[in-house]
Design brief:
CATH class of the largest domain: Alpha Beta
Radius of gyration: 24 Å
Bound molecules: adenosine-5'-triphosphate
CATH topology of the largest domain: Rossmann fold
Number of helices: 12
Oligomer: single chain
Number of domains: 2
CATH architecture of the largest domain: 3-Layer(aba) Sandwich
Structural class: alpha/beta
Mean pLDDT: 87
Number of strands: 14
């Protein structure tokens, strides 16, 4: 197991009283997995990740990360991980390449290897030609990719990525996905938070959903989608008058729920909609009822979210870095802690 956490709790003291950001999280991440950590704003994702990356200490609970005990050997954990914070980790005045090399050297990489590894990553993440640029002159997307280079340059076996694709254009996102897949192929384990559900769906082997500081669901994207809502089926009837008869047939199907009729359309949800369809069509046909069309929609991760948390993840938070937390002030802490 690359990460094994039990009962992780983190409470923040604030002027308005304690904030229970993480309230007893158990999680396991196997070697070589890409695990997506999803949840609405303020759910506790960043706090959990920062605990696992040794940047803040848990109020209680235990964890083994990359083979080292989080409490007893935080230095061992730090040496084996890469962490790309939401808020970025480069200094505006610094030269991009220098930042990368300095960062790698903190992890014991010699200068020559650090330059070679850094420049290779620059090429792979479309930063070619920017090695000597001051960080503040880079575009937002370039700076984000520079953050990612910083997290990868020392070739960690476990990589924490906190919303790595926020602020990237679609092409850069796709490029980063490809890169993440390659990292996994080389044996790395990836723990990633994202607000983009399509990203989680396409990239992650497994997804953990957190809400109000607690894990509320865990599974492959496919399992989660099946478990929560089932497929949505819409039957277009040639004659709206047949809707009650069709509804009766549909209600008899095992696992069918959420029946709705709107004029000549009967809709419902059912697990594995594609598999029940042939039998259903035969039953409808046997009663002499004519259909104009049938649609089956697989549930999306957003459906999962809505069912699990009562909130949609598809809000506008992906388009800004706000998130409402202390991302500005955490910058320094993260840099110091890693150093
Ligand atoms: N340093 C802090 N001091 C006080 N409260 C904090 C601190 N850091 C986080 N919190 C609070 O803890 C809760 C969880 O925050 P966290 O940043 O972990 O959520 P998140 O799931 O990462 O959210 P987002 O998607 O917006 O980044 C929030 O209510 C947040 O305001």
């Amino acid at each position: 197991m690359m990460i094994e956490a039990r009962g992780l709790v983190r409470t923040f003291k604030t002027k308005r009283g304690p904030v229970q950001a993480v309230q007893g999280v158990d999680l396991d991440v196997a070697d070589g997995e890409i695990v997506g950590f999803l949840g609405p704003n303020g759910a506790g994702k960043t706090t959990t990740m920062r605990m696992l990356a040794t940047l803040i200490t848990p109020t209680s609970g235990t964890a083994t990360v990359a083979g080292c005990d989080l409490a007893k050997d935080p230095v061992g954990v730090r040496r084996r991980i890469g962490y790309v914070p939401q808020s970025g980790s480069t200094l505006p005045e610094a030269i991009a390449g220098d930042e990368v090399v300095d960062h790698a050297r903190l992890y014991g990489v010699d200068k020559k290897s650090a330059i070679a590894a850094g420049q290779k990553l620059f090429d792979e993440l479309d930063l070619g030609g920017l090695w000597k640029r001051q960080c503040k002159t880079l575009s937002g997307g370039q700076r984000r990719r520079l953050d990612i280079v910083m997290g990868l340059v020392h070739e960690p076996k476990l990589i924490f990525l906190d919303e790595p694709t926020t602020g990237l254009d679609p092409q850069a996102r796709a490029n980063l996905w490809e890169h993440i897949r390659q990292l996994r192929q080389r044996g790395a384990t990836i723990f990633i938070t994202t607000h983009y559900l399509d990203e989680a769906d396409a990239l992650c082997d497994r997804i953990l959903v957190i809400d109000h500081g607690k894990i509320v669901a865990s599974g492959t994207p496919e399992e989660l989608k099946q478990r929560v809502s089932g497929d949505a089926v819409r039957l277009n009837l040639a004659d709206a008058g047949q809707a009650p008869a069709v509804t009766k047939i549909v209600e008899l199907l095992e696992g069918s729920t959420s029946f709705e009729t709107e004029q000549n359309v009967v809709s419902f949800r059912i697990p594995k909609g594609g598999a029940v369809l042939p039998g259903l069509l035969r039953s409808i046909d046997a009663q002499g009822i004519e259909l104009d069309g049938v649609e089956v929609h697989r549930p999306t991760l957003d459906d999962v979210f809505l069912t699990m948390t009562g909130r949609s993840l598809r809000d506008d938070s992906g388009s800004s870095d706000s998130g409402g937390t202390d991302s500005g002030s955490s910058d320094k802490t993260e840099k110091e802690a890693v150093a």
